Amino acid sequence: MALSELYTKYNRVWIPDAEHVWQSAEILTDFKPGETVLELQLEDGTELQYPLEGGEKLPPLRNPDILVGENDLTALSYLHEPAVLHNLKVRFVESKIIYTYCGIILVAVNPYKQLPIYGDAVIHAYSGQNMGDLDPHIFAVAEEAYKQMAR
Length: 151
Description:
- This protein folds into 2 domains: about 5-55, SH3 type barrels; about 65-150, no CATH class.
- Strand 3 and strand 4 form a beta hairpin.
- The protein is built from 3 helices and 6 strands.
- By secondary structure, it is α+β, with helices and mostly antiparallel strands.
């Protein structure tokens, strides 16, 4: 599939934004190679013509809504800066979840406050579990490291 086939009407992209870093927009007309603008509509309804550098610099595609808030970033269809930042924002701001996997790596967002996610009950819940069986957590990483060390 050619890259231009992904930039079709109703698909969404991320465009740079001075205030929010990245802003979501929906494509209004199919992109054809050689075009110098992409017809977009922002979430507030504003339509704009997004200039393409030399007709080649297309903005990053946005993941489908079904993937929003994934607990493992490697499950995203598109893994780039705006996708990672949006997924972490959804998990942290909307769901109050500070941990997210990126494969075998644990990404943590500092909540700048104490959270009740480190007690004995949580330790026991992760004890003996495989990484990925439960929600991402530092205890899952520690359990996996312990099992690998013992092996």
